[in-house]
Amino acid sequence: MRSPVTGIVSLIILFIVxxxxxxxxxxxxxxxxxxxxxxxxxxxxxTEPGLHFKAPWNSVINVDKRILDLExxxxxxxxxxxxxxxxxxxxxxxxxxxxxxxxxxxxIQAANLQLTxxxxxxxxxxxxxxxxxxxVRDDREKLMQRIREQLDREADGYGIEVVDVxxxxxxxxxxxxxxxxxxxxxxxxxxxxEFRAQGDQKAQEIRSKADREATVIxxxxxxxxxxxxxxxxxxxxxxxxxxxxxxxxxxxxxxxxTAYENGLRSSDTRFLLRPDSEFFRYFGGASGKLxxxxxxxxx
Length: 299
Prior knowledge:
Domain Band: 23-184
Structural class: alpha+beta
GO molecular function: peptidase activity
Largest sheet: 4 strands, antiparallel
GO biological process, one term: proteolysis
Family: Belongs to the band 7/mec-2 family. HflC subfamily.
CATH topology of the domain at 65-171: Tetrahydropterin Synthase, Chain A
Number of helices: 8
Subcellular location: Membrane
Strand content: 15-25%
Number of strands: 9
């Protein structure tokens, strides 16, 4: 029979073997690269994913090899025309040399702090060489490319490659923006008032021209109407004169009938006239002759 001491020793040996075996293997993920350290000093870099072996007394540090984000706080930058800009930018980077990265910064947090400082310096250098309009409108793409190149050169010493730099926003400070807005508002109001004044002037000119043309048209129409009426009256008088010349008695009778019609239209048909008045000449007969008694003068 084996003694209990032999069993305990066997268990201890097995535990030691398992511990040594476990500490001698490590895995590398597809998104990582691993630095193997011996007593704190890097001895190897493993970039291939999978299961790997190492000495039990060595340790490993995993370094992300994906593209990482760097969010930069808004910074105030002075352009070449002395205008202040509030610039909000961000960067994308990856660790291309894990050993240099580990020996220079050692962690993502430290790398972000260092890159933030370098990014702000690059922003001030590049944007300080151009004016406000160039940053805001004209050549922002080229400026971002220049900033990325400068930042990439400086970050190379930390084993970092800068993939991209973007300016998310570049505006005037709030107080300047308000002043610019007020100035633009005043300018637009002045232009609007000028346009309204020009419109009122044009409208007045059009109305004056229309009134003048209307007066001319009405005057010409009245003149034409007066001429037409005059011609009509002349033609009527001619016809009357011609008719009168053909039959004087009938013309006298017609005139009397017209006078009767006009005089007897109202409800009051009283007349203050002599019975032998010329007005009543056709009341006694169709011949228009006054009665003998009425016609004979009194002795």
